Amino acid sequence: xxxxxxxxxxxxxxxxxxxxxxxxxxxxxxxxxxxxxxxxxxxxxxxxxxxxxxxxxxxxxxxxxxxxxxxxxxxxxxxxxxxxxxxxxxxxxxxxxxxxxxxxxxxxxxxxxxxxxxxxxxxxxxxxxxxxxxxxxxxxxxxxxxxxxxxxxxxxxxxxxxxxxxxxxxxxxxxxxxxxxxxxxxxxxxxxxxxxxxxxxxxx
Length: 204
What we know:
Layout: H1 2-13, H2 15-24, H3 30-50, H4 65-89, H5 96-105, H6 108-121, H7 129-154, H8 159-203
Helix pairs in contact: 1-2, 2-7, 3-4, 3-5, 3-6, 4-5, 4-8, 5-7, 6-7, 7-8
């Protein structure tokens, strides 16, 4: 397991060789991916609870770790679902399992960048909050780049096709969100309609 976690770290700095071995040499596995996902959730919780005031202005009593977890898991799940749908119809060679593994491995920079942010936020003065924001932004850019290279290598796409597929995946995510919002609105309208009928028949 430690060897697998060490290789996951190798992937973050050698994406081409790393993702190739994860897919074709079976150096990636679901257990390691789930451990990485658990580490991400732990870091998110710690970031909310233990970040210094110079970086986290939300009062402790107003912090909600479940909301923060949802803020990560929802788009992450959307990415995996959309990736599987899009690559399935665009001759992608990766399975849903492969997508989950490389997507989770690609999130590792988020873990150690935010560990650094948590520690520094309790040491540096408030004037250094901009520096911590730069580290945070760099972690997202790093993760996004790894997701792109993971898509390229895992599905054996060319550079141009990888860009196209990535854009389509993002579009698919937006469409799914729009459909979810429409469904929620329809459910709300149905509930309101039922309440009106109930009031008319039984209350009045």
